[in-house]
Structures are given as structure tokens and as C-alpha cells.
From TrEMBL:
Region (Disordered): 1-25, 102-135
Pfam families noted in UniProt: DUF2237
Domain of life: Archaea
Protein name: DUF2237 domain-containing protein
Organism: Haloarcula nitratireducens
Biased composition (Basic and acidic residues): 1-11
Amino acid sequence: MESESNVRGEELEPCGTDPMTGAMRDGYCYPLQRDPGRHEICAVMTEEFLQYSKGQGNDLVTPRPDLDFPGLEPGDHWCVCVPRWMEAESDDRAPPVVLEATSEDVLEDVPLSTLEAHEHDGGDVQSPASSGRSD
């Protein structure tokens, strides 16, 4: 990965490693020509977003070993597609965003003020029934 910047103009930080996220499964959310989905927004999964996404035909909960996809739980950090996040935001279902780990390229489509309105505050977003990864 070349040196990439986040939406704050600083060095891009890793999004998540448990589970390992990113289009290249290297923990980072950055643009790749071969990634038409644009997995560039580092989001903290919520039960609401996971169910919303599943309802839109994008099941992020069910593990898919064939795609090196573990299935996600509330609290997991994951690089989500820019168009999917924008769709969720317009439907008031957007998950919190880790700005330090979100690619600056996202600013071509989403204003910084919108991302800041959804900034993850570092608190626990897990559902009361969830106590962490089950695997």
C-alpha cells in the first residue's frame, strides 16, 4: 500500500484486524482500481446497520469462507462500500465512522461534515446481547 491519507488529511490508520478488513484483507480502507465496490469507509458495525444491509441484499452477518469473509457482529470495524454507506445514511441507518481510518477519496462523494456527524466516539456500539466475537 502506498502512503494514503484519511479524511482529516493525516496518514491513514488501520480500520480493523479482528476480523481482518479491507479489500486486500490488510486492515486498511483505501481505494483500489480493482475494487469497484470502493471499500473505503471504516465503519463500526451496529445491529441496525447489519440488519439494514441484509435487507438490502448485502448479508454481512453470514460467514463466507470462500470469500475469506468471517461474518460480522456489532462492534466489528469493517471497510464498507461508499455507495452502501451513502444509501444507509440517506435512510438514517448509517453506522458510525472511524475518520482516522477512512480514505480521503471518500470526500469526493461524501462531505466531511456528513462523516463527522457519524463519527465514532470510541464507545461500545455492541448490542446488549453481544459480548464480543463468538469465534
